[in-house]
Automatic annotation (TrEMBL):
Annotated compartments: Cell membrane
Family: Belongs to the SecD/SecF family. SecF subfamily.
Domain Protein export membrane protein SecD/SecF C-terminal, chain residue ranges per copy: 140-325
Assembly mode: Forms a complex with SecD. Part of the essential Sec protein translocation apparatus which comprises SecA, SecYEG and auxiliary proteins SecDF. Other proteins may also be involved.
Main function: Part of the Sec protein translocase complex. Interacts with the SecYEG preprotein conducting channel. SecDF uses the proton motive force (PMF) to complete protein translocation after the ATP-dependent function of SecA.
Native source organism of the sequence: Dietzia aurantiaca
Membrane-crossing residue ranges in chain numbering: 38-62, 162-179, 186-207, 213-234, 272-292, 298-323
Major location (coarse): membrane
Pfam families (UniProt xref): Sec_GG, SecD_SecF_C
InterPro entries on file: SecD/SecF_arch_bac, SecD/SecF_bac, SecD/SecF_CS, SecD_SecF_C, SecD_SecF_C_bact, SecF_bac
PANTHER family referenced in this protein's UniProt entry, alphabetically: PROTEIN TRANSLOCASE SUBUNIT SECF, PROTEIN-EXPORT MEMBRANE PROTEIN SEC
Membrane topology: Multi-pass membrane protein
Protein known as: Protein-export membrane protein SecF
């Protein structure tokens, strides 16, 4: 149960509506006082994600796993029939068959293991005999079926560069926030970012979304969104707690909880506004235009925006309070506030 010194909610009318409390930001939603519950929830989420990553792994795209890709105008072709023809030719199922685009722009993409020159020729001939694809010039020819090979080392190079960029990014973020605010806020922000990365990766593992270079790039972009949301909350907390050590009206935990409430509606609006254009991107760019790379970017960013909002509200600020309560001056101020309240209650 939350105590007054632990970030207890402000008094409010029981008839107050949920939306009224959200918009007024009165501190009625107890976040900091229930931080132990959120810590447990966070640890459970991390444990599930790490278990899936270690046991289930990821579904890597051709850029990471390596292999051969065949492409062909789709027309009205059914992808299951394409998979059956390829399997009959190779003697094994293709790793992935998908159709992207609409109308005349529809194409079928087939991903397989690395194929020899003879295997590529045999598979293309089998597909041509079955579907009679037409080239851009309007001729029925096997040339309408394209092929390309991708080495797994290319995806590894992308990942390596992304990890280097991530390390540099985290160092810069820590230094900036520690300089602009304080080291406790910098630590809480970095922990929230690490939670976002683990959770997003875990969801990809659990659901089985394909991991591509675009996914790796998208993962880096969502960190900026999460950091923005966290800094907005921290800025309000700093404003509320400025000069706190010289007062005895509210504790640091209570002021931090008030700051979360005052920015909660903004966080919700930012999340919704961030997700809507990504949904439009999926509908227009992927379903209509058939650009698969944009699907990878959109999915990872939608997942990241949701996890980023959770971490900035329910992890970063509660963790900040836990770190700040180790400060002797904050401890003394909290004790002074509680003692004053006890005295006032006794007199009453």
């Amino acid at each position: 149960m939350a105590t007054p010194g632990d970030g207890a909610p402000a008094e409010h009318d029981s008839n107050d509506s949920l939306f009224n409390r959200l918009y007024t930001g009165t501190g009625a939603f107890e976040v900091v006082g229930n931080r132990r519950r959120f810590y447990v929830l966070t640890l459970v989420i991390i444990a599930v994600c790490l278990a899936s990553i270690l046991l289930r792994g990821f579904s890597f795209g051709i850029d990471f796993a390596g292999g051969t890709k065949l492409t062909m105008p789709a027309g009205e072709i059914d992808k299951d029939r394409v998979a059956a023809v390829v399997e009959e030719s190779l003697g094994e199922e293709p790793e992935m068959v998908q159709i992207v685009g609409t109308g005349n722009a529809r194409i079928v993409e087939v991903e397989t293991r690395f194929l020899t020159t003879d295997e590529i020729a045999a598979t293309k001939n089998a597909m041509f005999e079955e579907f009679q694809p037409v080239t851009a010039a309007g001729e029925t020819s096997v040339e309408a079926i394209g092929d390309s090979a991708r080495s797994e080392s290319w995806g590894g190079q992308v990942t390596q560069k992304a990890l280097i960029a991530l390390a540099v990014f985290l160092v810069i973020v820590f230094v900036y926030i520690a300089f602009r605010f304080e080291w406790q806020m910098a630590t809480a922000a970095i922990v929230a970012l690490l939670f976002d990365m683990i959770t997003t990766a875990g969801i990809y593992s659990i659901v089985g979304f394909e991991v591509t270079p675009a996914t790796v790039i998208g993962l880096l972009t969502i960190l900026g969104f999460s950091l923005y949301d966290t800094v907005i909350v921290f800025d309000k907390v700093e404003e509320n707690t400025r000069g706190l050590k010289h007062t005895a009206s509210r504790t640091y935990a209570e002021e931090a909880n008030l700051g979360v409430n005052q920015t909660l509606m903004r966080s919700i609006h930012t999340t919704v506004i961030g997700i809507l254009p990504l949904l439009a991107l999926v509908i227009i760019a992927v379903w209509i235009l058939g650009v698969g790379t944009l699907m990878d970017l959109a999915i990872v960013q939608m997942v990241g925006i949701v996890t980023g909002t959770f971490s900035s509200v329910f992890l970063a600020t509660p963790l900040l309070v836990t770190l700040k309560q180790r400060d002797p001056e904050i401890k003394r101020q909290t004790t002074k506030v509680l003692a004053r309240r006890e005295k006032a209650e006794a007199l009453a």
